[in-house]
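Why do we care about 3D structure at all? Because function follows from shape, and shape follows, mostly, from sequence. That is the central idea of this module. The next example makes it concrete: a single protein chain, its amino acid sequence, and then its structure expressed as tokens.
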Amino acid sequence: MKLNYDCIRDLLLFIEGKLQYGFYIDVDSIQIKNYSQQEILYSADKLYEAGYISADKRIAIGGKGIPQINIKSITWDGHQFLDNVRDNKVWENTKSILSNFSSVSIGIVNNVATQIISSVIETQLGLK
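And the structure:
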């Protein structure tokens, strides 16, 4: 399955807006417009693997089937990534730049967004 970076971003925004400290969100209960349940679950699983969310993940006996994921929080790294891609203009510019490549890692997405933000700040400070 292909990783959908729009879904990754929207899922992090959803988690940030809905999750209360000390509670959890069952990924099966998350519904985000324009994404299938499978896309949301896959995105949550990859965010967990990348260390961008803290979660309890259970896999069925025998290691087959769809995992059960309960999201507990966004990690420090997850918040840093989200803060880099939160702004719609930054996100659209990031996607535009990355559209020239057939695939990129989430680290590259984060780096490009960081460079765009840095460029905007330098321009506003008159350093460019």
